[in-house]
Write a structure and sequence with these properties.
Length: about 325
Amino acid sequence: MTMGPDCNVGKFDLGRIIGTGLMGTVYIAKWRKDETYVALKSVSKAYVCRHNDGRHVHNERRILRDLSHPFILKGFGTFQDPDHIFFVLEYVPGGELFSRLKRKEYFPAGITKFYLVEILSALVYLHEQGYVYRDLKPENILLDEEGHCKLVDFGFARKPGTDGLCHTNVGTPAYLSPEQLNGKFTKGYSSIVDWWSVGIIIYEMMTGKTPFCKNNSETSYAIYLRVFKGKISFPSAKRFPPVVKSIVKSLLVADVTKRLTTPANIKSHEWLADVNWNAVGARKAVPPYVPRIVEAGDCHYFNDYGMKGGRTSNTDVDQSVFTGF
């Protein structure tokens, strides 16, 4: 689809809400011009200004404009009204990998490996473009109509500073590296933190839970103490083969000098040594699961949040923050 400079919400037929967050709401919508289904992400300007989050939404806009990869969500453009900014995004109908995992409780090693290599492919590309993702978790991986992965939500992604490092504390604590969790005692972190998160989600896909977080109410420091001790409880070898255990333990080492931290070393690990990466990038690997999509715009894999998002006021909104949308 091609958006013009006069794009506005009236150009779309809004369907139900398929996602909600602190900053806004995601609708399924149909572009009236050619009946293309899209995900329309509405972000409250008031929230952005209150929380000084302008750079995050601008980063997301820039990244979606710059990136093009088979396992990364496409962005078609943005527009705004007095109260909201809107991201027009590719609609991915298969739902979250997180939801699929919760229905199955855990994945066997072969299925975990399929999703892992597509996630790795997306992250390697993202890093090559100079970005650190910083929010890798199953909720941010969608499945398309063929069952392939799509990495979404780039609000926390950014390019490191002139020193090659990031310094802000963002992301979901259960998936953060020790240098992110305890930034008080570090001088920053690089893109290798995304490989730590890869180790976390391998474990989660294989067991249905993360290795260092007991519940959602834990503090980042409590998780850090567990991370620092480095003790990980693994299921039986039948459920969690030694070769998979090996890569997880190599990725989840608190000492960066001993951690698996480069794409080349990760890809050459014994578990992944037989992967045809060219075939993966060409989407030729056969997905273990194909969503049942009944018709265009089918959204039954997403929670139903109704038809109307919360109303916001433009009170105290500095409109200059949103120049370019």
